[in-house]
Amino acid sequence: MSVIPNSVWADNGIWIDVDTSAHTLSVMQGDTIQTVFKNVAIGRYGTTWSKMTKDDKTPLGRFRVGWVNERSRYYRFFGLNYPNLDTAKRALDENRINEETWLSILEAKSMGKTPPQNTPLGGHIGIHGIGRGDREIHHEYNWTNGCIALTNEQIDQLGKWIRPGILVNIR
């Protein structure tokens, strides 16, 4: 497990580590595991460093929780600040976005706002429950459009740890 440098920890040292290979989400305090949620689902087509709209892949990288939607169709939604600057810079360098899109993401970041969610890189990426979805499908398949999904009960437990600003490392 890679340890995140102190400089990016939340003030209480809590951060989230998502291991997309092991299908686990760990709540960390510094380098100590506080709790582990197993059998998390990811994007139906796996993971990528180069996410694009509607590719149904989960973006890899380090993000922050930007907002919480308590009335999501997926029970509860912890929205991430995707696309972040690393993701956007890589996309600009690879000509997957234009300079105007890059600048809109940069401007949002500099103003402390959620980055635009309607760019070619996609948006509305987060950690959420299954809502009224089929628990059996959740246990058998990666089914999301790029998010990380837990059961509703797991989301309730995770909610005790998460607040806006917390780091989420997806690897």
Give me the count of strands. 10
* Arrangement of strands in the largest sheet: 3-2-1-10-6-7-8-9
Could you tell me how far the N terminus lies from the C terminus, measured between alpha carbons in angstroms?
A: 10 Å
Mean pLDDT over the full residue set:
93
CA-atom Rg in angstroms? 15 Å
So how many helices? 4
Percent helix range: 10-25%
> How would you characterize the largest beta sheet?
8 strands, mixed
Strand-pairing-aware structural class: alpha/beta
- The rough form would be described as globular
User: Strand-residue fraction?
Assistant: 25-35%
Poorly predicted runs: 1-10
What would your notes on this structure say?
With 171 residues, the protein is of the alpha/beta class. Helix content is 20%, strand content 29%. The chain has 4 helices and 10 strands; from the N terminus they run E-E-E-E-E-E-E-H-H-E-H-E-H-E. It has helices spanning 85-93, 99-110, 135-140, 152-158; strands at 14-19, 24-29, 32-38, 47-48, 58-59, 61-72, 75-80, 126-128, 148-149, 167-170. Strand 2 and strand 3 (32-38) form a beta hairpin. Helix 1 (85-93) packs antiparallel against helix 2 (99-110). The longest helix is centred in the middle third of the chain and has 12 residues, at 99-110. The radius of gyration is 15 Å and the shape is globular. Residues 1-10 have low confidence and may be disordered.
